[in-house]
Amino acid sequence: MTNQQKNDFTSWYIDTIQKADLMDYTPVRGCIAFKPDGYEIWEHIQAEMDRRFKETGHRNAYFPMLIPESFFEKEKDHIEGFSPELPWVTEAAGEKLEERLALRPTSETMVGHLYSDWIKSYRDLPVLINQWANVFRWEKKTLPFIRTSEFLWQEGHTAHVDEEEARAETMQMLNIYKEVVEELLAIPVYDGQKTPSERFAGAVDTYSIEAMMKDGKAVQAGTSHYLGTKFAQAFDIKYLNKENKHEFVHTTSWGTSTRLIGSVIMVHGDEQGLVLPPRVAPTQVVLIPVGPWKKNPEIMERLDKIYAELKAKGIRVRLDDSDQSPGYKFNEWELKGVPVRVELGPRDLENNQAIIKARDEEEKISVDLPTIADCIEGALNTMQTRLLDKARAFREKHSHTHVDSLEQLTQHITDSTENGEIPGWILAGWCGDDACEKQVKEKTKFTTRNIPFNPPATKSTCINCGTEAKYTVWFSRAY
Ligand SMILES: [Zn+2]
């Protein structure tokens, strides 16, 4: 944690994304424009997710953005969960519509309506479809990338012959999310099951991956839902089984969104601003001539050569030969979070060396010019791993297992604040009663994140009522 991050994390965050030129506000409340450097981070996430979806047999399709009001009324929990956040289209071409149309918050209802037509027999199953789209949830409090009224995401919608197959799909997709978020974004996550009150509206079970930001708050980084036959019954999605009998399909849905961009910034950023993991950085390496380079044409010749070598390796490289001072350029590219900077001046060239500096490390290192492309590639790979290690160490440091009662939690929060620390997350027992969960939230603003599959410890008593714990749960403040 740095000073500005400590004092006011939100203003640090907004400063960082603005200095890095990732987004802009628009006159539409809660709706942001993704500028190219922000959008490209999403494109790298998309590419990796999409590759893994296709590897596991899924195909992309597209569904309409407008959803008839009557569709929402078919699934009771779904309408209850989403209706407060829905924007509506009520007229078109100067006339009032007979039925209001919602801007989709998610597509289970439209998909359900269509799947009831598309699925007739067990031979049509499984249906494995994903959609890349924008969705709308009219949020009261917004924060760029993390919570916006319109955002980009992917939503998978699958249908299966039975519960076993649908549950296997639900877990498979959660695992893909965990792998992509850890490997590509260098963000460690806890995977687990949501408590009933935190479930997706209309799901039988919701699973999530949860990540810790540098202010200790959690971001739900991806969710995967087993929907049972609830949507199949609401939309009449039946198939003829091998015995020629009608059965309801079992469906799943799963999603990740552009809030992953916000998470990357909040997990890796520092006092200088953005720090991007190499695998998602729009520019991975920047080459900067230093010293009296304009009088030495060999400098630019050599940088052109390095540029070509890096390009040939598939590395996203920029050469900054603008007339700003090197110090100015260093600062600019640091604000943009570029993972590796290369400096080359006349004296370096004489020594047949160049200087490289990783964005997240203090010291610069000299490397031999003949092997520089390999060295840079190595530096990018090392940084990718190092960022995950650092984020993991940070998370371990701020994950607490010693809190077993509400009094202890209140004390823990007070102590942390007094010591200038963040309260982080706590692992605590829970009896399974909604009322206990609610009480913890009201008193401390700590909410249940998930019931982790592999908790670092097991708890025997409920944090609120002290009776026997049925579950061991992560609690924290969350975005
Ligand atoms: Zn309890």
UniProtKB/TrEMBL annotation:
Where does the record say this protein resides?
Answer: Cytoplasm
For this protein, the record's CDD domains field holds:
ProRS_anticodon_zinc, ProRS_core_arch_euk
Q: What is this enzyme's EC?
A: 6.1.1.15
For whether the record's keyword set contains tRNA-binding, the answer is: no
Top-level taxon of the source organism: Bacteria
Q: Where is the signal peptide?
A: none
Under catalytic activity, the entry for this protein gives: tRNA(Pro) + L-proline + ATP = L-prolyl-tRNA(Pro) + AMP + diphosphate
Predominant location of this chain? cytoplasm
Cite the domain annotation text. Consists of three domains: the N-terminal catalytic domain, the anticodon-binding domain and the C-terminal extension.
Quote the subunit structure annotation: Homodimer.
| Record-linked NCBIfam families | proS_fam_I
What functional role does this protein have? Catalyzes the attachment of proline to tRNA(Pro) in a two-step reaction: proline is first activated by ATP to form Pro-AMP and then transferred to the acceptor end of tRNA(Pro).
Instruction: State the family it belongs to.
Output: Belongs to the class-II aminoacyl-tRNA synthetase family. ProS type 3 subfamily.
Descriptive protein name? Proline--tRNA ligase
List the source organism: Sporosarcina psychrophila
Gene that codes for this?
Answer: proS
